[in-house]
Amino acid sequence: MRPDLWLTLKENVLVTDLQMIRPDLFIVLGYVSWWCFNNNLPCRVTSLIDDVPQRVTATHSEGRAADVSTRGFGPKDITNLISFLEEKVGHMGAFSKSDGKQRVAIYHNVGLGHHIHIQVKRDLDGGFYGKESRH
Ligand SMILES: [Zn+2]
User: Fold this and answer.
1) CA 21 / ligand 1 centre spacing (Å)
2) Which pLDDT tens digit goes with each residue over 59-111?
3) How many angstroms separate the alpha carbon of residue 135 from the centre of ligand 1?
4) Which domain holds residue 116?
5) C-alpha 34 – ligand 1 centre gap (Å)
């Protein structure tokens, strides 16, 4: 059975936070959702702008990162989704502090389980996105 929502949010993620993320991140999430829909997989966002202690960058609090659950994904699904995103929206990806490489999607585990971290580059500064827009 096909999922009928373009994405779902984990219980702790505020639906109003979808309005506080950067527009380019919204576009990337659209591509994630589109790919998931076409591959019969759920698109479940587990984190938007809230911090967790393990975070090493400010991408989430700045409204330019989202975490997507890979529950139900096979290893091939994960690499296929990441390749798809690199092809379609790789130019929107954030640059890594450690190696300078631009990546829009990273599969990793920072202590809360494996997931795909989606991130966009630090453009559009001056707008009120992420934590700043909550006040
Ligand atoms: Zn993340």
Assistant:
1) 13
2) 999 999 999 999 999 999 999 999 999 999 999 999 988 899 999 999 998 87
3) 22
4) 8-124
5) 20
Is-contact 56 13, C-beta < 8 A? no
Q: How many whole angstroms from 47 Cα to the centroid of ligand 1?
A: 7
Q: How confident is the prediction for the chain on average, in pLDDT?
A: 90
Which residues make up the environment of ion ligand 1, defined by Cβ < 5 Å?
65, 67, 117
Could you give the CA distance from residue 104 to residue 118 in angstroms, rounded to a whole number? 6
Mean pLDDT of 19-39: 95
Number of domains in the chain: 1
Average pLDDT over residues 21-41: 96
Check which CATH number belongs to the domain holding 87 and give it: 3.30.1380
